[in-house]
Write a structure and sequence with these properties.
With about 350 residues, the protein is an alpha+beta fold. The chain contains 7 helices and 7 strands. The strands form 2 sheets. A 5-stranded mixed β-sheet has the order 2-4-5-7-6. The protein has a two-stranded antiparallel ribbon with strand order 1-3.
Length: about 350
Amino acid sequence: MKKRDSLFYHISIFVIAQLAWMGLLGLWIYFYVTNYIIFEKVGDQLAPQIKIDNPNVVVFVGGIVLIVAVAVGMSFLFRGLNVQFKLANLYDNFIGNITHELKSPLASIQLYLQTLRTRNVPPKKQKEFLDLMIQDADRLKNLINSILEISMLEQKKVAHDFKIFNAEKIIKKLLSESAEQFKLTEDMLKIEGSADCDCVIDEKAIKMVFDNLIDNAKKYSTGKAKINVKLKDQFRKIIITFSDNGIGIQQSQLKYVFNKFYRIYNSKIPNVKGTGLGLYWVREILRVHGGKISVASEGENNGTTFRIELPVYYSTEGGITTRLLKRTEKRRAKNAEINSE
């Protein structure tokens, strides 16, 4: 309620300010025209020194332009204010989501520890509890690390380790590791196509991209998730498409899915966990690699397709891939110099 009242207050101030400027503009025009008409009527009867033969149109037009410029400026300020309100709302949602994501594993760990302390738990059950606590601890660690890495990525402080790989081999390797991590069976992940070319990537970072896309496909599927990955190289680009059979995305939401803190709500799966940072992180990682990602969906219940583009590496050419390699070499040389001191 407070946010709505605050928004209403700012909108009211904006409307009143605009009306005030419009009123001022009207008074300015009325004053100028009225005085001009008066001088036209009685000008011949007045002394020559106060007669206005050539009205100062420049001042008149300049005043109007100034007022209009201020009004336009206020419009831009209002748009900026509206954007800030939306960001604040998304940030509040993020805080709520991240709090829940942090509390859940902590509560689980606490429950297991209390059970072990107060009850005589059989050794087999103790091992089961310990394994579950380790999983929850890993979940907490990954969540905290992801938030820290996004912050470092935005500040360009992430030390990416760029290397040259055969595109097809490394992509299929990383996909296999993600499939194993998320316990995907052979019928849940299908990989098609080929890309017999080289690429320059940070292996760990691209693995995070695949992890996020596969995780989303699983979370936003009402039944058994099926992911179809197609791989090809064309026009000096490596193209990877992820298609799933999930709930899909409404057309009106597609342009927001990569925004920071943005989460898609669907009544069919209202309890999906997340922070709204995954796809934003994916986009930023690919941007650092000189690539990009886009999304398409035919709407609800028609699945979603993500399209990734990465540049092909050519040893005889410059470009983004060469700069990435030089950046890594420079960082390694600097680290070696520091270690030798």
